[in-house]
Amino acid sequence: MSLIESDKNKLLNFYQNLTKKNGIGSHRSLSWNTKDTQHKRFEALSRIGDLSNKSIVDLGCGYGDLYLFLRKKFRDVKYTGIDINRDFIDFAKEKFINDKNCNFIINDFSDMSFDKADYYFASGAFSLNLKNNNLYFELIEKMFSAAKISIGFNLLDKEFHDSDETFLTYDVIDTYKKLRKLSGSIDLIHDYLYYDFTIFLYK
Fold first, then answer.
1. Alpha helix (H) ranges present in the chain?
2. How far apart are CA 87 and CA 101, in angstroms?
3. What is the pTM for the complete model shown?
4. What is the pLDDT of residues 104-160, one digit of tens each?
5. What's the burial of 170, exposed, middle or buried (CB within 10 Å: 0-12/13-18/19+)?
6. How many Å apart are CA 173 and CA 34, to the nearest integer?
7. 122, 40, 129: which is closest to 84 by C-alpha?
8. Fold of the domain spanning 5-170+178-202
9. Domain spans of the chain?
């Protein structure tokens, strides 16, 4: 299922307004409060396994900051970042113009086929409250189908932040139980930010 038009407009307008306020290249334009919280999420995602010499797809990649983080931690990561926001993708392409191990694609990833890759990631991509929030779990299933080894993504914890007009939060236990139906091998990480949790689903 693809983004309905009103949800697509909400998504684009949300980030366009943040970019107008904070400027292109700012972590705040990606809706990260601080670089530290952004990196804590990246550190949690990097626990998924040894990503050296592995292919990775990052949904909602923004400026490719996850790649920058992983490139320092692992060898020869083959990275593809996908984002619906043209300004973000243009910035990322310029930022990594001389790096042959990464590729950036502008696309609505809810409406595209996923190529096979070792790992799929989504950091912060499932946090905007939409009219059709079931789309997020459909995307998780799609990620899992395309991944050869595992997928990793983070979500906001409902215990510390109720869903509101902007942000969608998740019950940790309910989400875990729901995703157990998709994979018998699942890890839950909930020790890096009290209001956020990360899930890994393994093949």
1. 5-22, 35-45, 65-73, 86-95, 134-146, 172-180
2. 21
3. 0.96
4. 999 999 999 999 999 999 999 999 999 999 999 999 999 999 999 999 999 999 999
5. buried
6. 27
7. 122
8. Rossmann fold (3.40.50)
9. 5-170+178-202
